């Protein structure tokens, strides 16, 4: 029997859970959309803040199709997402943005648990950032968009044949909860009091 079959499993969201990046990502959206009317950009940022677990691909498409009411295509969305990723790669490689109590927990417990990152952020960008931050070795896999989070979780469960009763997802958005619920695994909210107010299982502090 493989060793991981005897371990419990934690699937981690990244932004807002491991990395305090919301202000930097908001700055990135503002820079990419600098040539658009401010009022429309603010609508996108409101959508972004309400849907932390959704990918930038979904958010840029929402901006173009729902806010601007324009026809768009995958190439234009990918271009915006690529520009956004370049900004993130420059801005998010400082360890000062890591959430200290979460990093302490991961460093202390990574041999007791199987750990994976499942994020709405771009997968290639995630692997770059975690490498630059020196934390990639704690995780069995680091996966992100454009694959939806529900699919990322499902794929990990199937690939590793994990017992769903031994797996939880820790996230800071309702979209993280949805990914856990759809895949029939436990969810724990963190760093978002609105999730606690909804009556969901909630981690006050890792310390």
TrEMBL record:
Pathway: Organic acid metabolism; glycolate biosynthesis; glycolate from 2-phosphoglycolate: step 1/1. It catalyses: 2-phosphoglycolate + H2O = glycolate + phosphate. The keyword Hydrolase applies. One of its GO terms (biological process) is DNA repair. Its EC number is 3.1.3.18. Keywords: Hydrolase. It comes from the Bacteria. GO terms for molecular function: phosphoglycolate phosphatase activity. The keyword NAD does not apply. One of its GO terms (cellular component) is cytosol. PANTHER family: PHOSPHOGLYCOLATE PHOSPHATASE (PTHR43434). Belongs to the HAD-like hydrolase superfamily. CbbY/CbbZ/Gph/YieH family. This is phosphoglycolate phosphatase. The lineage of its organism: Bacteria, Pseudomonadati, Bacteroidota, Flavobacteriia, Flavobacteriales.
